[in-house]
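Appendix B. Raw example, untouched.
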Amino acid sequence: MIYKLKGSLTVFFALILVVVMTLIFTMSECIRVYELNDFGQEYLDMAVESGFSEYNPYLWANYKILAIDLGYGSENIGPSIFSQRLMDYAKFNANIEEGSSFARLNPAGVTVNQYQVLTDGKGAGVAFLGTKAAKDDMAAQIIDGIQGHLDKVNGIEKVQVESKAEEGSSALENAKNELQEKKAAADEDDDPNTSSADYTEPEEVEDNPLDAFKLMKEALSKGVLAQVTNVDIISGAEWDKSVMPSHRKLQVGTGEFENSQNIADKALFIDYLLTNYSSFSQDKNHAGMKYEVEYLIAGKESDAQSLAVVVGELLAIREAANFATICNSNELSLQAKSVAATLSSFNPPIEPVVEGAVIASWAYIESVLDVRLLLSGGTVPVVKNKNQWTSDVMHLSSFLNVNCKAKQCKGGVSYEKYLIGLLAVHSTSTLGMRACDVMENALNATEDYRYVKADNLMFMADVTMDYSADEMFLSLFSGGGMEGYTISKSRQITY
């Protein structure tokens, strides 16, 4: 037997049920709106992080710099392609079939409010990222070591060695000319008490150090690299400096960059440059320039020119240090004094000037030997002692051959370490912009990145994403007549 149950719903209960359901749907919609804000931020975060994962791989692999090519392999300038890619990522994540969202939140637009490129702030972006990369690998005590080495190399008292040698040579030559004039006058006058024989003849030494100085100076002026290394191994790479970031008009990012580098940051940046850039002694097999660190120091139009400038600066450092060594060594200074006394014996008052010239000439020749050793991979102390000395003041001409080098010194300083001192004298902005030159030159030397420009490489962005969403639960009561929601979310990201 089947029984039928009867039920009824009073009007009062129906009204109460409508109120309860309205409350439940309103609460559900409020929860959904709250979740829409979370979803909006999540979609933006995923989109921005996905966009920033598309950094240029060549820069990271070779220079440890993370930056996005805003042209994406094309000649496009600015963040328009980047914005579209963020929009595509956000739509993918918001799509029910492709992503994981059931919130029905639709990306409506994206705006890159601010962005920064590597060349902003005169290369401050490169300095910031380079310092950051170095901090990941360098302990505080090594920072102190770098700074101590800078003080040691740049603390050498600068002496105008070459001008001292030339001044003494001129004084000696002038004295000889005056002597000849006096002797000629004595022979020509009518005074029987005067004769050219009354004057002391100039003495000569077996190998005049002043003559050796002139020969080396002349040889270096004709081709400094040929006198310090094998020219056959020198890179022949050249470039047009006028089109490089440091010399052309640049695109500028819209963000404000505060460069607050201190002494420790400068040391870290120098360490970053030496670690990741090629030099004459360390070939990183980068495209484009081969002597990148030398370009950072000199900024010339070819590898050979940049190397020549660095060699000249190394000679200046070594000349001053070697001059000090001779002056502070009793044995070496006595040898120089003996040669000077012989050369100026016909005119004793000029002996101090000639002695300075002999010391300067000796220091100059020893410096050339030092640079030859450095370029061949050897090490030279910042300041030598007597036992580390190579040349002989009595036979300086025997050291003019390019194959003659200073003696290898245990515990000396390598070519790379001397570059630290040469980098330190340049400002961070100069090094930063030249680093942009180097990276752009290397990128453009490859087929895949020939259109990449340093002032189009972004490393920071501030992004706003706009979303739209329809009502879900309240639409059951409104009949879909409400306008829905508009949500905006922002995110700033920096490598």
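End of appendix B.
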